[in-house]
């Protein structure tokens, strides 16, 4: 099925989100749509999916103009969409989620899920999804939840599949699996629009690439194009994809984690006897596949877990047992891995979000009354300093793209003197231009003498930022290695080998011609 967009324009008042965009997706093609956060990629796809009505322009499928009054019309025309933030009901089963919107009933109005279960099994077997129709969605890993979203589209016979930032919440392993699935779908004749800001992924899977900047198509390229060329097209300027940072100059060890264990309500250890320390002026990156204790580690420092054993000290002050407010007041800056649920209040303005941890203090309030003028001035300065793309600092945070939301969180956390800075997945869902900016700000904070802990599942990011790297597996610390360690060593540690055994395996002689193994 061929898709064509001609002159698509979408305006929201004075804001032109899409400006006369032309796009052609051939049948059985993976078309990469590349652009910064806020460039208009998602808006364009929401127009295609019937969520927005275009201000101007037309959509053609197999050379025939079509108009959609809603997603149901788009689905009926053979278009399916997997949103960046999944549209699933956590307490429903896979089959119940897939059936939503197209439910069939049998006698007495009872929901009939047998046909849905059969289709899920057929699609799962065809593409190797390994999805149980009767599993509760809330019990599934994020990567499997995404497969459920793809199944939802395929059950409705989607011939054109829109994947909106599909790897933003995936681990590297899950990303690789998604790429394989996309290849299989393409081989079966499905056309795919792959929306992303990740250059490596776009180049790896796309047949052709269209680049959007500030609502306009600025060019197209083949996947063989240089990464620097694509990055420049995205942001409109040359981008240094390599972080140039001086060697760390560690000072006094001020942050110490000793024999830290975190248990759930059932007594199961989620973090098991972890010890490490961080000095002023250095970055310790915590690497590992998502779900191996990283979240529990950062939340334990912040005071969000009640079942804790061990010690966490900052400048000799014990943090275990303190409230979140007390930890923040001790000089800890914290960027959570989920900016939408834990980092921002979507209904609050950008200005208000920029003082969430400071609103009780001068100069932002006095005698319990907020100083609106000071808050507005602070917001204007931070929006400019961190290049937050917004019409106004008084706009609500939920109107921002993901990357701009992340800038607001970092701007807030770096706005005060810190004794420790912790950032979990600091650039997840952030475009290449913003990554360059945010990395520089983190390094600048390090160079100012702040001890920093970065938690990231992105090995590229870990290797760019880290002075030392700690690897977690199944809640245990596999070791701490230099920041310039090899991907191979880190990969073995992430798979469960301690640093010594991993290095020994890499150093072992190759097998002999007789097939002997060391």
Describe this structure in words.
- The chain is an alpha/beta fold and 518 residues long.
- It folds into three domains: 3-235, P-loop containing nucleotide triphosphate hydrolases (Rossmann fold, 3-Layer(aba) Sandwich); 241-331 and 417-518, Rossmann fold (3-Layer(aba) Sandwich); 343-413, no CATH class.
- Helices cover 33% and strands 25% of the residues.
- The chain is built from 18 helices and 22 strands.
- It has a six-stranded mixed beta sheet, sandwiched between helices.
- Helix 15 (432-447) links the parallel strand 19 (420-424) and strand 20 (452-455).
- Helix 17 crosses helix 18 (499-507).
- It is globular.
- The termini are far apart.
- The model is unreliable at 511-518 (pLDDT under 50).
- It is a peripheral membrane protein.
- It is found in: Cell membrane.
- It holds the Pfam family ABC_tran.
- GO terms for molecular function: ATP binding; ATP hydrolysis activity.
- This is Heme ABC transporter ATP-binding protein.
């Amino acid at each position: 099925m061929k898709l064509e967009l001609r002159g698509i324009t979408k305006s929201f008042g004075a804001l032109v989100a899409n400006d006369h965009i032309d796009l052609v997706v051939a049948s059985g093609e993976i078309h990469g749509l590349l652009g910064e956060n806020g460039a208009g990629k998602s808006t364009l796809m929401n127009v295609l999916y019937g969520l927005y009505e275009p201000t101007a322009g037309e959509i053609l499928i197999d050379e025939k103009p079509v108009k959609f009054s809603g997603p149901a019309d788009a689905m009926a025309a053979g278009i399916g969409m997997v949103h960046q933030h999944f549209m699933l009901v956590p307490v429903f089963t896979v089959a119940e989620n897939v059936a939503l919107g197209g439910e069939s009933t049998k006698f007495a109005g009872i929901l009939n899920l047998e046909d849905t279960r059969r289709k899920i099994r057929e699609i799962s077997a065809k593409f190797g999804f390994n999805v149980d129709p009767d599993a509760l969605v809330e019990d599934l890993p994020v990567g499997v939840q995404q497969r459920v979203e793809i199944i939802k589209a395929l059950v409705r016979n989607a011939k054109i599949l829109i994947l909106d930032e599909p790897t933003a919440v995936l681990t590297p392993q899950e990303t690789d699996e998604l790429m394989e699935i996309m290849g299989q779908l393409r081989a079966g004749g499905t056309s795919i629009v792959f929306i992303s800001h990740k250059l490596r992924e776009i180049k790896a899977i796309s047949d052709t690439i269209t680049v959007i900047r500030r609502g306009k198509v600025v060019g197209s390229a083949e996947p063989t194009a240089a990464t620097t060329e694509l990055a420049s097209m995205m942001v409109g300027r040359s981008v240094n994809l390599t972080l140039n940072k001086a060697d760390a100059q560690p000072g006094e060890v001020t942050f110490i984690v000793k024999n830290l264990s975190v248990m759930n309500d059932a007594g199961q250890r989620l973090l098991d006897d972890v010890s490490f320390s961080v000095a002023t002026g250095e970055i310790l990156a915590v690497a590992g596949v998502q779900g191996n204790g990283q979240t529990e580690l950062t939340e334990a420092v912040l005071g969000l877990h009640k079942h804790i054993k061990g010690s966490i000290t900052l400048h000799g002050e014990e943090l275990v047992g303190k409230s979140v407010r007390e930890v923040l007041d001790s000089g800890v800056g914290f960027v959570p891995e989920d900016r939408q649920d834990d980092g921002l209040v979507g209904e609050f303005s950008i200005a208000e979000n920029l003082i969430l941890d400071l609103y009780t203090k001068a100069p932002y309030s006095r005698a319990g009354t907020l100083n609106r003028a000071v808050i507005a001035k602070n917001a204007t300065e931070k929006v400019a300093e961190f290049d937050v793309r917004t019409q106004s600092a008084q706009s609500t945070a939920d109107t921002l793209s993901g990357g701009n939301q992340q800038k607001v969180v970092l701007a807030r956390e770096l706005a005060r003197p810190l004794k420790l800075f912790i950032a979990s997945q600091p650039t997840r869902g952030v475009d290449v231009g913003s990554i360059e900016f945010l990395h520089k700000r983190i390094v600048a904070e390090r160079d100012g003498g702040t001890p920093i802990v970065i938690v990231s599942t992105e090995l590229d990011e870990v290797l760019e930022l880290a002075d030392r790297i700690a690897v977690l597996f199944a809640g245990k610390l596999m070791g701490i290695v230099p920041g310039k360690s090899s991907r191979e060593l880190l990969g073995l540690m992430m798979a469960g080998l301690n640093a010594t055994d991993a290095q020994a395996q890499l150093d072992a002689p190759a097998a002999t011609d007789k097939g002997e193994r060391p």
